[in-house]
Amino acid sequence: MSFPLLRVSNLSVEFSTYGRTSRVLHDVSLDVPARSQVALVGESGSGKTVTMKAIMGLLRQPPARITSGEIYYDGADLLTMPEKDRLRLRGTAMSMVFQDPMSSLNPVFTVGDQMGTILKYADKRLGRSRSRRERMVRVHQVLEQVRMRDPERVTQAFPIMLSGGMRQRVLIAMALLSEPQLLIADEPGTALDVTTQAQILKLLKDLVEERGLALLMITHNLGVVRETSNYVYVMNKGAIVEHGETAGIFDNPRDPYTRSLIDAVPRLTGGTRPSGEVTA
């Protein structure tokens, strides 16, 4: 049986709180082939983040419970493998870029200390050993790869000393430290101004193409989908309602929900439209 790099098959998840149970994912299926750029798009509350957390093994169980489905990475079923093996994959073969640098970075440690610690644990999971100096050489290399000027100064800085765009680049660098095959980006750049966000998205796209990585972009912004993805899954109320090549989805949407998202994108001529960002 041939598998893409990541396959989610008929995934259903429910949450139980205060004696009530709610199903939040309904038979979600999606594929992310190697070296592909895939987007999962939908408004806030559609189930994107729950899907991402299930893939990465970050769902708190309880209150969450996976009631059915499979998640395969490189042909291995993540939901049945031993936890130590799944932990080894997370942060090494699969890495995440989070949307809010200030909540993802520890304000009391320097960037160099945080990146060095991440690399140390990644090396341990992979059975590698290198000195602190060797780890810092690697940290500087990756900071240079995310187009960060003066990486030595950056490693000595605390997060509050960096701009929002620089902090987002640090998060991308952290995700790339262990040379993953799959990068999952959760609304990167959302907290940044439009110009800086565009720079971050271009950087991500360039890095993915240069390194031959697979990218799963989690977003509510159709503009981001156009810029970063070749294939798109549209999610609404915990279910995939439509999927296909990005150009085809924009040119000929079939599902009413997809059409409503596209109609919300501002046009260059003719009337006023709401913001291109879809919000709850």
Structural features, described:
The protein has 280 residues and is of the alpha/beta class. The protein has a single domain, classed as Rossmann fold (3-Layer(aba) Sandwich), CATH 3.40.50. It contains eleven helices and ten strands. The strands form two sheets. Strands 6-7-8-3-9-10 form a six-stranded mixed beta sheet, sandwiched between helices. The model is unreliable at 270-280 (pLDDT under 50).
Descriptive labels:
globular; alpha/beta; disordered C terminus; Rossmann fold; 4-stranded antiparallel beta sheet; 280 residues; 6-stranded mixed beta sheet
Helix content: 25-40%
Shape: globular
User: Per DSSP, what share of the residues sits in E-state strands of 2 or more residues?
Assistant: 25-35%
One letter per element, helices H and strands E, the order comes to EEEHEEHEHHHHHEHEHEEHH
- Helix and strand composition category: alpha/beta
Strand order of the largest sheet: 6-7-8-3-9-10
Q: Give the termini separation.
A: 39 Å
How big is the Rg? Answer: 19 Å
> How many helices?
11
Task: Report the top-level CATH class.
Answer: Alpha Beta
Using the coordinates shown, work out and report the CATH topology.
Rossmann fold
